[in-house]
Automatic annotation (TrEMBL):
Keywords: DNA-binding
Protein name: DNA-binding transcriptional regulator, PadR family
Domain Transcription regulator PadR C-terminal, chain residue ranges per copy: 94-176
Pfam families per record: Vir_act_alpha_C (PF10400)
Presence of the UniProt keyword Nucleotidyltransferase in the record: no
């Protein structure tokens, strides 16, 4: 997948200025498709050049120097629909932590990797709490339409992923501590 389709999807959900779009990525899309603001602005230019998005007139924002609102063109919607139906192969997740653990196995240096696992555990725990707060705020005690159900499905994937990471980190710490005791 490319950033292109994440941006088109976000703009199809709601037209936005570049700044609004970057903020939306910081609060939503970025949890499952992270991108820097520079990458987003560069892709916006490419999408405009390709005719997949266009500037929208906004009487509330007239004149030069004002933020430009962009929305998806019919060609952009058609491109997104084609992409939805394309098959792609799941890719293995890259994990510097897994490489560190393999390096610890090769060198016998367990102390440093234990600290790395603790940092990952803290980060995944914080992300899980963020996702739970989003779930409470956006999905609790509501009847959801199809769009809402699909948004919740994506969030539940993030929840499950963070829970799996937390469980794995806890198992890793237990194993590393046991191995250090047996040295």
């Amino acid at each position: 997948m490319s950033l292109r389709f994440a941006i088109i999807t976000s703009l199809l959900e709601r037209e936005a200025t570049g700044l609004e779009l970057t903020r939306r990525f910081d609060r939503s899309f970025g949890y499952f498709w992270p991108a820097s603001h520079q990458q987003i602005y560069r892709e916006l230019r490419s999408l405009l050049d390709a005719g997949l998005i266009e500037e929208k007139g906004d009487p509330a924002r007239p004149g030069r120097g004002q933020p430009r609102v962009v929305g998806v063109t019919e060609e952009g919607v058609a491109s997104l629909r084609r992409w939805i139906g394309e098959l792609d192969e799941p890719r293995p997740e890259r994990s510097s932590l897994a490489v560190r653990i393999r390096a610890a196995a090769a060198t016998g240096e367990l102390g440093g990797v234990e600290d790395a696992v603790r940092r990952h555990l803290a980060a995944h725990t914080a992300t899980l709490e963020t996702y739970r707060e989003i779930e409470r705020r956006d999905f609790a005690d509501r009847l959801l339409d199809a769009e809402g159900e699909l948004h919740h499905l994506v969030l539940r994937s993030g929840l499950a992923n963070e829970q799996a990471w937390i469980g794995w980190c806890e198992d890793a710490l237990e194993l590393l501590q046991r191995l250090r005791r047996s040295e």
